[in-house]
Write a structure and sequence with these properties.
Layout: E1 2-3, H1 9-15, H2 21-34, H3 47-56, E2 57-58, E3 63-69, E4 76-81, E5 87-95, E6 98-102, E7 106-108, E8 123-126, H4 129-143, E9 149-152, H5 162-172, E10 185-189, H6 193-202, E11 207-211, H7 217-223, H8 232-246, E12 250-256, H9 264-274, E13 279-285, H10 303-315, E14 320-322
Parallel strand pairs: 1-2, 6-9, 9-10, 10-11, 11-12, 12-13, 13-14
Antiparallel strand pairs: 3-4, 4-5, 5-6, 7-8
């Protein structure tokens, strides 16, 4: 069945063509702005209309299976159970500028990056646009405050689920829905070049964040199997095309692993690769993903190595910051999200 929360306004209008036009607008308001968890909540719609919708559509929703709150920084991690029983994790982080939600776009992940927990249990399925939206609605209902920023950096590769992700972006930014500014949305990709080029042609105002994590192909292939399909040269060429088409600088994510990709020569090589490109580099001291540490025996870089890496990049005129690791005590930091029943 088609998911009701995933419909654009004109699609909802077509589905309710037998009713006055204002009914479709009322339904869209419930689905997108208010975030109704069930059709029964839509009390200003006639019962026969709700019955019609129930018979023809499914309504994506998220049930909170588990909630954890960080004692360190107030970060909230949710394990959401979807309609079919599958589960995904989402994280709400509190900043001075508002609250940011880290959303999942797939149940599991196909990319199998060795330092990331999300793909350790394999891949189950893509999420619908409505299921991505439902994560926001469920978090807002529970917290009683609005989400102001979105990062598509949870479980899954957003561009591997391209059509649903694009539909989500258009619905989340719709002026009659959540109305979140495109400039307050970041999408993270491991570098799927054809989809990056497709996204560039959409000319959205979002921030594209590319997970690089290595300055050369040999090392990146060890860490990220996707590099066998799309080498660094191809990924960076796509980034330059994206920046040219959108006028938006690209952000690069670089998880620092002790003795693996955090040496001074790696920093110099990275600076040489990115030189001349309008970009920002986010250095991420890699986070542990369970009792056995990061991936297959990796450990995070020490603070002094991180600062030394940053200093080399800055001397080469790179725009660089070290990302704060929020929610580490509840396994809610970068690379730690996974499907847990």
């Amino acid at each position: 069945m088609t998911d009701l929360r995933s419909l654009y306004p004109h699609e909802l209008q077509q589905a309710l063509a037998a009713y006055p036009a204002f009914r479709a607008k009322q339904a869209f308001d419930w689905l997108q702005r208010i975030g109704a968890a069930s059709l029964d909540e839509m009390t200003n719609l006639p019962k026969d209309l709700r019955a019609k919708l129930a018979g023809q559509f499914q309504l994506s929703s998220c049930e909170i299976a588990r909630k954890q709150v960080s004692a360190q920084d107030g970060t909230v991690k949710y394990l959401f159970r979807l309609n079919d029983g599958e589960c995904v994790e989402s994280v709400v982080m509190r900043y001075e500028h508002g609250r940011s939600i880290c959303l999942s776009t797939q149940v599991g992940c196909k990319m199998a990056c060795v330092f990331c927990a999300s793909g350790q249990n394999g891949f189950a399925r893509d999420l619908l646009a409505g299921e991505m939206l439902a994560q926001i609605h469920a978090a807002q209902r529970d917290l009683g405050v609005p989400v102001t920023h979105i990062v598509l950096m949870g479980m899954g590769e957003p561009l591997d689920n391209y059509d649903n992700t694009l539909r989500f972006l258009r619905l989340a930014t719709h002026p009659e829905g959540l109305n979140i500014s495109q400039r307050k949305i970041s999408l993270s990709t491991c570098g799927l070049v054809p989809q990056m080029d497709r996204l560039a042609q959409e000319k959205l105002g979002i921030t594209l964040s590319v997970s690089l994590h290595a300055p050369n192909d040999a090392l990146r292939t060890e860490l990220m199997p996707v590099n066998r399909a799309y080498a660094i040269k191809e990924v960076l060429a796509a980034c330059r095309r994206y920046a040219a088409a959108t006028g938006r600088r690209v952000s690069f994510e670089y998880a620092l692993l002790h003795g693996v990709n955090d040496r001074p020569e790696h920093a110099r090589e990275l600076a040489a690769k990115l030189g001349g490109m309008p970009c920002h580099i986010n250095l991420i001291p890699a986070n542990e993903t369970g009792a056995n540490g990061i991936g297959s025996g990796f450990r995070r870089s020490e603070p002094e190595r991180v600062r030394a890496f940053q200093a080399i990049l800055e001397r080469n005129r790179m725009n660089v910051t070290i990302r704060r690791s929020l929610g580490k005590d509840i396994d809610a930091a970068c690379g730690q999200l996974r499907q847990k029943g």
